[in-house]
Amino acid sequence: MRFRGAALPTVLVVFAALTLGACGGSDGASGSTADLPTGDRLTVYSSLALQGESRVQTLAIMQGIRLALHEAGGMAGGRRIRYVALDDSSAEEESWMPELAAANARRAVLDPDAIAYIGEFESRASAVTIPILNAADLAQVSPSNTYVGLTTAEPGSTKGEPDKYYPTGRRTFVRLVPRDTIQGAALVSQLAGDGCSRPALVHGDESYGAGLSRILEEQGRAAGITFVADLSAGSRPLELQSQARGLAKLGADCVVYTGLPGSVARGLLVAAAAALPAARLYGSDGLCQPGFTDPSIGGLPAAVGARFRCTLPTVDLREIPGGAAFLDAFRARYGPADPDPYAVYGYEAMRLILDQISAGYTTRGSLTRSLLQVRGRRSVLGTYSVKRSGDTTLTDYGLYRVGSDGLPTFERTIHQAP
């Protein structure tokens, strides 16, 4: 999906700082109003890219959010809960836009009833919105972000992360999916299980792809796996073909691409498939989406897709503790079709917020602090805690293949130690 991880170019960090500056003064966006709201109605916002390649996943998240609120009768802690769904994407660009994400965050901050914010789908978008929301002590829960630098300075992050996203010095961001450190370990585990003795890494030129590549190299060393190459993907078809031939000369038997979907990732994998006809092909969560895998809409050719596996921080809904009950409730509300697995993360995001409100945390500051103190929570996802960094203790990743319909299809759960 632009699933979880995403690029964090410098321009967006600068943009976040600029939008944060616009939130100062007496307009309700500064930390001085952190204990709002005080009325009998609380508002939960979501900001998701509802257009473009991630539309299937983000609409599912939104349905999960609405289902949780419906089951609660629209109430929590004796207060009415209003849900406002915002779109951070552009129909013209068919992608999230930094200015739209920033505007959504500012809108939530300026609403005196706002108690929490669910989003973003893209890690890059959260790099824009976290500082804005942090300045107002407004809790942010992401159902999908995996980029390491949002919460830790572990390998894969860039200089100044994560502190530069938290101008107040306090954490206000919680993620419900395991970060890329865990994804790296999951991919390395799969490479070892598949007998990859000479794997090669290729990454996009964004922070997400390059960062995850560094994580894989480190995790590989720990597991006794040495990558024969770690390349930054070229930008032109001839360059990608040349890189693929270079991997063949190195004797690569597996190729892993970490990065965002698009012509570069597609071109590299197609070229690798041609140059290395027996090699296994893998991709990170950024590529594990219909827009990249479905040949009918410009995704990987079917012959290449048949050799491709990818990881996601979601697993089959039937494999999570509350999955069966969630599926029954979802179908009763929306119809018989199975939802995208991300639906349950939207559901849990809202359930988590509602449960904290019901426990008496009805101001921005108290709710934010309570989320970072969640321990041993029994949820539809399983039992988890939230670390002081904002990370979840959940560690399972899903391995997906490309089905006959061109869509990512769950294959198995890759279990990782907590």
Automatic annotation (TrEMBL):
Leucine-binding protein domain boundaries: 60-406
Note the coiled coil stretches, chain numbering.
none
Keywords recorded for this protein, A-Z: Signal
InterPro entries registered for this protein in UniProt: BCAA_transport (IPR051010), Leu-bd (IPR028081), Peripla_BP_I (IPR028082)
Q: What is this protein called?
A: Unannotated protein
Species, as recorded: freshwater metagenome
